[in-house]
Amino acid sequence: MIIRQIVNTVFRSCSYVISHEGCSWLVDCGDLDQILPLVDGDLQGVLLTHAHFDHIYGLNSLMILYPGLSVYTNQAGLDTLLNDKLNFSRYYGEPIIFNEPDRVKLVEDREWVELFDGIRAQVVFTPGHSPCCVTWIIDDVLFTGDSFIPGVKTVTNIPHSNKDLAADSEALIRELAEHRTIYSGHAPEIQ
Ligand SMILES: [Zn+2]
Predict the structure, then answer these.
(1) How remote is the CA of residue 75 from the centroid of ligand 1, in Å?
(2) Does 190 reside within a domain?
(3) CA–centroid distance, residue 2 to ligand 1 (Å)
(4) Could you tell me the pTM of the whole model?
(5) Which of 11, 98, 114, 121 could lock onto 81 through a cystine, CB 3.0 to 4.6 A?
(6) What's the 50 CA to ligand 1 centre distance in angstroms?
(7) pLDDT in tens, 32-72
(8) Domain range spanning residue 126?
């Protein structure tokens, strides 16, 4: 399994292409011009860490390019995809409403998703930064989105965030991270 990180132009949010034996999955979706060249073989699906606009703005175009693609998130994530107030895109220029709600696969806390032959992802709900935040566990790797960015205080001063939940989620992620590598939702600013 190979993981490639894309640092997107909007807020330096990160997307990740996960490839294995000629198939790929995507974690979050920003700049397609950066993401698409890294997709190896068939793109199987998109795992969302959360649905704030800086993590989903490439998604509508991606769904057109890959008509068989599904997006994995929880109910709060679907609600956020479909509401430009909840995903904050309304306040940053171009409002984003996800066009393909029927192609969302809703996941429950701790559910498993089969990615490749013999490789599964487990979703763990880690709300706080947003009600829809999840962390994806794939073997010895964690995709934490904005629930936990090493060295950065979790953002909880925005609408619908919850400081106490975020602290609980961070404690849980620290536990999960004990023997795992963290791939988070933003890359550090270049000074
Ligand atoms: Zn966010």
Answers:
(1) 16
(2) no
(3) 25
(4) 0.96
(5) 98
(6) 7
(7) 999 999 999 999 999 999 999 999 999 999 999 999 999 99
(8) 2-184
Q: If you measure from the C-alpha of residue 69 to the centroid of ligand 1, how many angstroms do you get, rounded to a whole number?
A: 23
Tokens of 12: 């330096």
Token duo for residue 135: 């962390």
What is the rounded CA–CA span in Å between residue 9 and residue 34?
10
Residue 20 — left, alpha, or beta (φ > 0 → left; ψ -120 to 50 → alpha)? beta
Residues 75, 80, 82, 86, CA torsion sign = positive
Render pLDDT for 105-131 as a digit per residue (tens, 0 to 9). 999 999 999 999 999 999 999 999 999
- pLDDT digit string (tens) for 124-173? 999 999 999 999 999 999 999 999 999 999 999 999 999 999 999 999 99
Question: What CATH number is attached to the domain comprising 146?
Answer: 3.60.15.10
* Distance from residue 116's CA to the centre of ligand 1 (Å): 28
Q: Which residues surround ligand 1, an ion (CB under 5 A)?
A: 52, 146
Top pLDDT among 177 and 191 is at 177
Q: Is residue 191 part of a domain?
A: no
**Amino acid identity at 79:** D
Cα of 130 from ligand 1 centre, angstroms: 7
